[in-house]
Specification:
Elements: H1 8-15, H2 19-26, H3 34-46, H4 53-60, E1 65-70, H5 77-91, E2 95-100, H6 105-117, E3 122-125, H7 135-142, E4 147-150, E5 161-164, H8 166-179, E6 185-189, H9 195-210, E7 220-222, H10 230-238, E8 246-249, H11 252-264, E9 274-276, E10 293-295, H12 298-313, E11 324-327, E12 330-332
Parallel strand pairs: 1-2, 1-3, 3-4, 4-5, 5-11, 6-7, 6-8, 8-9
Antiparallel strand pairs: 10-12
């Protein structure tokens, strides 16, 4: 049996009114009286009417769809950012297409192509750890499609960005460890390709220098965010002739993995070695001991990025400005330090 989708013609026939009146009632036009609008809306719901967004998009040259590209969904950070972004988009009548790149540059390129194919009106992007070429994202600029970066941003593209104060957050957490009497503070750093990695590393280094603590290269280990490697690097640090008395990790998943390894070695946290992370992942308060970390306003990042994108979509390309919004990250002290 052929499926029939209710149209405005069906509603018009049932109510014995014109289809233009039905259309105006459905879109909230002021020239339709309240009683007629009420009858149209009630019947539309009863008949399970769905607006033909494809037809509307062809008329208005808009898809009413926004793309979001994130590098991973393994932690709570990106899902929370997406929730914040969706809340803002929904209030403005936009649907959202979400894709995650699994920390793969090639997948990110493919995801960008999907967004273009689906004719998104704008896109939010957070880069993978592998991304060093941005041609696939510059296409959006050339086509006049607004793009906003968040958290992991592209420095060479002059577009809006939403970040947290990664440098200050790292500086403050390392200074906290120093104030707790720690002097050999190791750092499991992120890949150099990411600006957040470099900012957090610089915050770590400057906190040491300010407090006249020597920078020891063997205590600084950049890694590719693959948690399987944390065991190798933490084991290396703990087996040094003079092991560290604290560890600052690039993010909370790294720090929490390190805590499990340290505890398995029979060491006390924070007495033998303190541990600190970054982002305030949901599980960071549940692990034993609770993880000292830097709290990032995850949902606010998503909301701010989406607001910037919507503002661009309401303006001519010539009016777009490469604004950078920096949100505050706050130190959260728990039992691990």
């Amino acid at each position: 049996m052929k499926r029939h989708q209710t149209t405005i013609i069906d509603i018009a026939r049932a109510l014995n009114i014109s289809k233009s009146t039905v259309s105006r009632a459905l879109t909230g036009h002021p020239n339709v009286n309240a009683q007629t609008r009420k009858a149209v809306l009630e019947l539309a719901e009863k008949m399970e009417y769905e607006r033909n967004m494809l037809a509307i998009s062809l008329v208005k040259n808009k898809s009413f769809t926004i793309g979001i590209i994130v590098p991973e969904f393994m932690t709570t950070f990106f899902p929370q950012v997406v929730i914040g972004a969706q809340e803002v988009a929904a209030k403005k009548g936009y649907n959202v297409i979400i894709s995650q790149s699994n920390e793969s540059y090639e997948t990110e390129v493919a995801n960008a192509k999907v967004m273009l194919t689906n004719r998104v009106d704008g896109v939010l992007v957070s880069l993978t750890k592998e991304t060093r070429n941005f041609d696939h994202l510059k296409i959006f600029q050339r086509k006049g499609i607004p793009i906003v970066f968040f958290n992991r941003v592209c420095e060479e593209m002059e577009v809006p960005k939403v970040v947290t104060n990664d440098y200050d957050g790292a500086f403050n957490i390392v200074e906290h460890l120093i104030q707790r009497g720690k002097k050999r503070i190791a750092h499991l750093a992120g890949p150099d390709s990411l600006l957040i990695s470099r900012k957090r590393l610089n915050g770590y280094l400057d906190a040491l220098r300010k407090n006249n603590i020597p920078v020891i290269e063997e205590l600084i280990i950049p890694y590719d965010l693959t948690l399987e490697k944390v065991k190798i690097y933490v084991k290396y640090l703990l087996e040094l002739p003079d092991p560290p008395d604290a560890l600052f990790a690039i993010n909370d998943p790294t720090a929490m993995e390190a805590i499990q390894i340290i505890k398995a070695k029979g060491l006390r946290i924070p007495e033998d070695i303190a541990v600190a992370g970054f982002s305030n992942d949901f599980a960071s308060a549940l692990i034993e001991p609770g993880l000292t970390t830097v709290s990032q306003p995850m949902r606010e990042i998503g909301k701010t990025a989406m607001q910037l994108l919507l503002e661009m979509m309401d303006k001519e390309v010539s009016e777009w400005k490469a604004i950078t919004r920096t949100l505050k990250a706050e130190l959260i002290i728990r039992g691990s330090s």
